[in-house]
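As a warm-up, study this chain.
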Amino acid sequence: MTGQSYGGFTPTGTIATAADRRRVVFATVVGTTVEWYDFFIYATAVGLVFGQLFFEPLGANSGLIAFATVGVSFLFRPLGAFLAGHFGDKLGRKTVLMWTLILMGAATALIGVLPTYQAIGITAPVLLVLLRILQGISAGGEWGGAVLMAVEHAPKTRRGVFGASPQIGVPLGLLLASGVMALMTIVAPGDQFMAWGWRVPFLLSVVLILVGYYVRRKVEESPVFQELAERKEKARMPIVQLFAKHSLLVIIAALVFAGNNAVGYMTTGGYIQGYATNPEGPIGLERGPVLWAVAGSAVTWLISTLFAGWISDRIGRRTTYIIGWVLQLIGVFALFPLVNTGQIGALFAGLAILTIGLGFTYGPQAALYSELFPASIRFSGVSISYAIGAIAGGAFAPTIATAIVQATGSTQAVTWYLAGMTLIGLVATLLLRDRSGIPLGPDHEAEQSVSPIYGVAKA
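Now compare it with the structure written out below.
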């Protein structure tokens, strides 16, 4: 039974057991949670401490510049995606995932011991930005490998729910990052938090990376890649082939993610945390309660992400996404009216409503992307589409939102900006055919290479 659609069979014909699948799911969840914890702990710290500790000489613009460093890392995600896509299609998904985990962990731990501006001057923010760039390169390579390990191991009727396993690493990473930061506001309150408390979550990354590395090392390589390797059918220049034949598909797939990512980065990018806790702003809430509210909303995000992956196996990826865009639009218009009440309960409600739509436009993404691209260039296709979507969407969303509020004194224009990004995601989704259940193995490259874009007959 070789060359099948990977509905439970390995390339050698051995039936993949339920235990094998559980191991893959567990490894992708743990690995992506650790990766995104590292990535989001930076964004959380930007909204709370980095403006003051690393960019204070910039005065009124310190917060704006600090948020810009969140976006700078996104500019290097395509580099990570290009490298990971090339080596992932040549050397395997598992090898790339091990290196992205190590790179992210090392960069995060080094931020935890980085001297501040007061100690070493301009060198401090320069080193901070360089370490954030390394995080961006790692994040650019991580996602594609994680989702392919999950989806390519899955039975074809359960790709949505299997693909949702690395997707929940985002809300879990946000939950962990916000929860640890909130805990540190209790352990090291007030000035102690600014002096040393914020460093502990970064240093904790060392332990998490060791756990993630151990778990990932136990997982078998993707069966699709194993068969490509056995047949010696790996693409020589996968990135060149991707852009030569599928450049329009990459752009449309990127815009699907951009619509989700711009809205999601209101919390994962640290904007709501900074906006709600700014003592000179209109709300001025305490750090701890805001962080706990964000952590709580990560739970609703996790649940909706898992559910969306599951339901997409029943009603299709495209239909699930369309429902998600409607829900996300509702959440966008509810967010700031609730946040601006200055009540912590209302802030949580606004974030919880928003995350329902975010889950529906994120949970099916792993399966959707995997079913869009041919096997031999799939790692490159999903990684680069994701990286470009992250730049177009979340890269500078917190910076844009900060600039809008500074210019207008109101969050109303921010709402319209997020609504516009949501509509872009909806339009991009409508341009794609639903390919749920398409065979993923190398025997079906011809079928996979037919363009999924409406109105485009060939790739």
